[in-house]
Structure formats: C-alpha cells, structure tokens
Input
Amino acid sequence: MNAESKGLLIHIGADTSNDETLGIVGPVFHDNQFEFIPIVETMPRQGAPTYRDIRCTSRQSSPYNRNLSFYVREPLEQKPCHYDPNPEGFTYSEPPDARRGKQLLRLLPDDFIFFVASLAQYSEESYREVDTSTIRRHQAGQMTKYLIGYFKIREVFQVDTSATEQSRHYSIRIARNNAEIDSSMLEAVEPQIRINAHFLRPSDRFICAVGNRIGMKGQQRLSLLLPEAIPLTEGWPFKPLPFAERVYGKLNYPRGHKWIPNDLRPDGLQTLLSRISELGE
Output
C-alpha cells in the first residue's frame, strides 16, 4: 500500500434482488467460514458451468464433498452461473458503460478491490428440503453483509471478444489510457483474463480488473476469498457494525459500492487491510 492507494468495496454474488441473483444468499457458519454463491449467467455459452459443477470451498462443506447445488436447490441448481469473480482467477469484470464498470475504471495499480456479499447463518433445517423456496423462507430477515475477499490491483483492462462458428477473436488493452499491452504483461495476465466469466461468454466487451496473488504478508495466495468472512453490518437496513463504521463511516450498505478512504474515515483503508492481515491474508 502506498500513500495514494484507494479501495473499492463492491457487492457481489447471490442475494434477494431478483431471479438473476437467485433470491437466496450463501451460508455463513458459526466460525465465519462461508460459501460464495455467484449469480445466474444471462449470456451462457454452451457448456457453461451450473451450480452442480462448482465445488464448495469452505472447510465446513469439504468433508461432505459438496457442490454449490447443496446450497442452491431446485429449480435453480441446473442454471448456468456467472462465476465472477472466479476465486482462483483474481479478476473481476463489468460492462464499461455500467455504473460498476465506471468504478472499475477509477482503479489504478496498487489500489485494492474488496468483495462484499450477503450471507445468512447456516442451519440444517434450511437445507432439509429439495427446493429453493424453503431456503428462501428460512433466510428471510436473516441476511447481513460480510467482506469475503479482495485483491490488489495489477492493472485494469478493456477486453473485447467476438466469436464465429470457426474462430474466436479478442483484444486486450490498458483501460486507463487505451494503450497496447506489452508482451511480458500479456503473458502474465492473459491466463487470468481467459477464465473470467465475461471472457467465456460467446462475445462481450468489458472492463477487467486484474489482481496479483500476493497477500498482505508477501505470501502467494491460491484464492481471492478470505479464510473467514468479516462481518460488516447488522440486518436490514444494513447499518454498519463498529468495525465497518471505522472503515467507511456511518453509512448503510444494502448493495452497490463504496470507496475508501473517504472524508468520513481517512484511515479506513488501513483499518481494513490491518484486519485482513490478522486473518493471515
């Protein structure tokens, strides 16, 4: 982190906004282990992964060899999912003209992006039935916001992809100045970009924030997800807990994004990074 670094908190994943966001949220366990559940993919390619195809990542789920379909039941478990961010890819993308895409364009190298999600406390009763409506009923009024992941920005790119039956074409340029990308950087970031959900669509134009895999203590990270979710809010209307108030001030956080530091909390970024460092990240 340098003196000019800033952080973007952005809300991701399943929630109760509409059918595309599933109408349910991921579980958080008693020890703050959690499962990140992505939203539904609206522009699926042939062979796009469904919730049945994605393995759970928490220590609470792994002994049972679970896929996300354990937490996303009928009739949603067979839908293709928009796996962005892909925890192993250290990228996050949005359309350039969307509000979120415009926020990504403000990020510079050495800035940070932080991922916030709605989660609800896990209970066995919620998942005893085979349909999603049971989960939705048990989660009603139980959702709060958590910080679930982050990465440090390496660079932000504009990516254009198109495909025909015979071939696929794409271009990658540095978004902040529309500059060509040199061969050494392309070699480093192209594998990350190629597994981003927007790149995997039949065709798309998007802003892609690419991160490095180095943690707060200089270690190599295998996933952008945190080992534990950090609670940020109470329930609706999602007033900040004392820790979150030290990060971004007395601001509710139902969805959307927030920038840190801000005028309310000029030391908010350092406060958040210190807490992440305590988790070994």
